[in-house]
Specification:
Elements: E1 3-7, H1 11-22, E2 26-30, H2 34-43, E3 59-62, H3 65-69, E4 74-77, H4 84-92, E5 99-103, H5 116-123, E6 129-136, H6 141-144, E7 150-155, H7 159-169, E8 174-178, H8 182-204, H9 209-229, H10 240-251, H11 256-265, H12 270-277, H13 282-297, H14 302-312, H15 317-325, H16 333-337
Helix pairs in contact: 4-5, 8-9, 8-10, 8-11, 8-13, 9-10, 11-12, 13-14, 14-15
Bound molecules: 1,4-dihydronicotinamide adenine dinucleotide (NAI) and 1,3-dihydroxyacetonephosphate.
């Protein structure tokens, strides 16, 4: 039985805390709001993020970061990508010996184009960082919290650390695989959110399954194109953290990215969509980061490009789909294997 600190008491942090608590670990969950922490400790609920779900009693929440991490053998970071540097800045002051950090967030930082494991390594000194492990895959919090069958992948340059984290999380409802390709695992998880926005947008416009299948397939092609260019193993994109997560995010009503795209497709403005959601929609910032990175690296990403124009340049949703359909003709498979279209 381990002591595990989970930083981020939103949907995914709370769902992962449930998995860990089901496995018998002592879980300390860090939240920002006093009322939410009281609700978790006294009523064993987190109604805003996981309505109707009863939380195990071995999850104890706190607003005090030092309290949360002081006994922790492992720290699981599950705040939005935007908050990572701020949270790591606070965490650095609370650590005195090396600890394994697991992160389960999905994004790329605009401006630096860093993956989250790179941000962690930048912000935490080696003296307090044992290993970084990424946890990713097709896993909506709503289903994980109901103990529905789910599979994820953990990845690290230190495979012993990845296996330790596999042991920590795995149970009969939550099957955990390992993969040494950190770059591919992180990029697959981050970039699929862009395509999910596109799938929602297409559904919002009233287009059908043909359009969605096209977005998923051609989306995977551009994810793999950027990913392999950045050093990922192409095979990772046919796994759980590639096509697996792409399918679940593009087809599930649980997906915040899909829902945001859907509202955009129905004509809502981005700022109203984000306000309406009240939860993180990682795909918006990731679209900006991936668009800029693809320009810098000269990697063609047509879906990302039109999504960027919809989000940041007022392009209409229908016009975006028309633009994709009217691109100059190209090969299909060559496009992936030669990394050029
Ligand atoms: N919800 C899901 O099913 C899944 C989410 N993820 C990823 O997990 C990450 C977190 O997502 P969710 O939990 O769903 O988001 P959420 O919107 O449900 O919750 C985010 C939580 O982070 C907290 N937070 C925000 N800024 C913070 C800051 N500066 N300091 C401390 N806490 C802060 C919020 O108060 C909230 O409790 C995202 O990167 C998302 O892509 C990954 C897999 C599944
Ligand atoms: O990453 C997820 C499922 O694997 C969650 O996706 P959303 O952030 O779109 O809800």
């Amino acid at each position: 039985m381990d002591n595990v600190a989970v930083l981020g008491a939103g949907s995914w942090g709370t769902a992962l805390a449930i998995v860990l608590a089901d496995n018998g670990h002592n879980v300390s969950l860090w939240g920002r709001r006093e009322d939410q922490v009281n609700e978790i400790n006294n009523d064993h609920k987190n109604e805003k993020y996981l309505p109707g779900v009863e939380l195990p009693e071995n999850i104890q929440a706190t607003t005090q970061l030092n309290e949360c991490v002081k006994e922790a053998d492992t720290i699981v970071l599950v705040t939005p990508t935007k908050a990572m540097r701020e949270v790591l800045g606070q965490l650095k002051n609370e650590l005195s010996s090396p600890v394994t950090i697991v992160h389960a967030s999905k994004g790329i930082e605009p401006g630096t184009y860093k993956r989250i494991s790179e941000i962690i390594e930048e912000e935490l000194p080696e003296s307090v960082l044992d290993s970084v492990v990424v946890l990713s895959g097709p896993s909506h919090a709503e289903e994980v919290s109901l103990r529905q069958p789910t599979t994820v992948t953990v990845s690290s340059v230190n495979m012993k650390a990845a296996e330790k984290i596999q042991d920590l999380f795995i149970n009969q409802n939550f099957r955990v695989y390992t993969n040494p390709d950190v770059v591919g695992v992180e990029l697959g998880g981050a970039l699929k959110n862009i395509i999910a926005l596109g799938a929602g947008l297409s559904d919002g416009l009233g287009y059908g399954d043909n359009a969605k299948a096209a977005l998923i397939t051609r989306g995977l092609a551009e994810i793999a194109r950027l990913g392999t260019h950045m050093g990922a193993n192409p095979l990772t994109f046919s796994g759980l953290t590639g096509i697996g997560d792409l399918i679940v995010t593009c087809t599930s009503v649980h997906s915040r990215n899909w829902r945001a795209g859907n509202m955009l497709g129905k004509g809502m403005k981005l700022e109203d969509v984000l306000e309406n959601m009240g939860m993180v929609v990682e795909g918006v910032r990731t679209t900006q980061a991936a668009y800029e990175l693809s320009k810098r690296e000269e990697v063609e990403m047509p879906i990302t490009q039109v999504l960027y124009d919809v989000l940041f340049n007022n392009k209409g949703a229908k016009q975006a789909v028309d633009d994709l359909m009217q691109r100059s003709r190209t090969h299909e498979v060559e496009d992936v294997s030669s990394l050029k279209s």
